[in-house]
Amino acid sequence: TTLFRSITGNRCEGYQLLFRLRNRLLLLGNHIGSTDLVTGLIDKQQATLPHLLSDAEALPLAMQFGALIVDSAINDLDFDAALTRAESHYRFVQDFLSAWQLFVGDSAPALPRWKLRAAGTLARTLAMRIQSDDDAISVRVHDLLDGVVAAAQHPTDLSRARVTRLMVFSRLHQWEQTLACVEEMLNSELDVFGANAAARGVNEALIAGVSVPRDLIREVLCEAERFVSDRSFDHPRDLVLREVALLHFQSGGHSQARRYIEESRVKLKQQNLACALGRWLSGLASIHNDLFRNRTSRLAAYFAGSFEQQCLALLGPLASEKVDRQSLGAIRARSPY
């Protein structure tokens, strides 16, 4: 407790150390979904930021903070704030990169990676706002991702770009491109986020009534279940479990679907995410569970209680709908994960 107070108190000496430690706490707060902790940390970091920026060596810490507060807004299901922060972060990195290149040249190898991450963060945040007719946003997202893919040298950057592009295709109901993107991902080195995105892309296509080759379904299911069998982590394993459950359900494996969705619900409950996103994901898992068991309730009922207002705002007119295949597709299209 004493250490925590010394880290989060305004009188702690050494702005760089203070900022670095708070960034660590902010990362932890985002991970566990602690809204109260995150809100307090952001306020303190923003108050410290002017002092930090007086030292050029501390700029990487400011850039890390810029990315962290985007995730904090997503945890609050506040996509307007997330986009505002992502745009600001991207401009900050772009401006700093331009100034560096003007006065120093290309002697800092870390700079391009910061730019790629900022572009990827902005693309992902934009993609979460896309609805079925948002072509203008999708063009910008693809432009950002084209830049990331062209310059990326790290597998993580490429994987994130593919996951975001797949989200765009799916939200625009561009099913041919969605399935082509899934096949491209399967031909690359899949990480857990890529496997989850591939399973989600196939699920969305199946919900929409698209004819998906059985071989592709089996391959995606095999890859996703490979990560489900790894019990060394809870997130995003909880999301993979949900997608594997739905794939089994849509393939006729109802008993497997019920088993996997129940494990997903247990994992989400164990994480006890104290944020709007955590409440949303728990409600979404329960909706899948009830669909698999032929139960019907109004969608709004799954989000009663804590963070109800944020969840209902995301639901919009779907709140009065009952659980069925069509409403499941509509609510999944609104979900960031």
Explain this structure.
With 337 residues, the chain is mainly alpha-helical. The chain has helices at residues 2-8, 15-32, 35-52, 59-75, 79-103, 110-127, 135-151, 155-171, 175-186, 192-207, 214-228, 237-250, 254-271, 276-292, 308-315, 325-334. The longest helix has 25 residues, at 79-103.
Keywords:
mainly alpha; disordered N terminus; 337 residues
Quick rundown:
The chain has 16 helices and no strands. The protein is an all-alpha fold.
Topology:
Blueprint: H1 2-8, H2 15-32, H3 35-52, H4 59-75, H5 79-103, H6 110-127, H7 135-151, H8 155-171, H9 175-186, H10 192-207, H11 214-228, H12 237-250, H13 254-271, H14 276-292, H15 308-315, H16 325-334
**Which percent range fits the helix content?**
over 70%
- SSE string, helices as H and strands as E: HHHHHHHHHHHHHHHH
Overall geometry comes to globular
How many angstroms separate the termini? 34 Å
Approximate strand percentage: under 5%
The total count of helices amounts to 16
* Number of β-strand runs: 0
Structural class: mainly alpha
What Rg, in angstroms, do the CA atoms define? 21 Å
Instruction: List low-confidence stretches.
Output: 1-5
Sheet with the most strands, sense and barrel status: none
Mean pLDDT: 88
